[in-house]
Hints:
Elements (H helix, E strand, L loop, with lengths): L25 E5 L3 H13 L3 E5 L2 H7 L8 E5 L7 H9 L9 E5 L5 H6 L4 E4 L4 H11 L6
Parallel strand pairs: 1-2, 1-3, 3-4, 4-5
Amino acid sequence: xxxxxxxxxxxxxxxxxxxxxxxxxxxxxxxxxxxxxxxxxxxxxxxxxxxxxxxxxxxxxxxxxxxxxxxxxxxxxxxxxxxxxxxxxxxxxxxxxxxxxxxxxxxxxxxxxxxxxxxxxxxxxxxxxxxxxxxxxxxxxxxxxx
Length: 146
């Protein structure tokens, strides 16, 4: 017998304890159209995401002041008070939230040079193509810590 086999504290083979299920990724949806916002929330929750909403960019910035930080921001461009491009500029200037990826959903489009300057991951025109949008979300949305 080996010394380990004689150890009185040995309780036998290690038991595999299943780990807790991963926390769903949190998406911040910034959209002023309440019908589209409600539809997107339903679709995203059905896909297993946790979703928080802001009806304008100022509310979104206030939400980003607290934990947990979202894994992804879905951002409309035409918003009241502050448009989506201004929001992204402010977000990128704030070190604690600058790295949160942004996917734009828009009726007006974004010039490629502006999209590159603001590091927008992808943009989608309304009406949205659900499969393509969900594919982009899966690619850019990973759960964050803290």
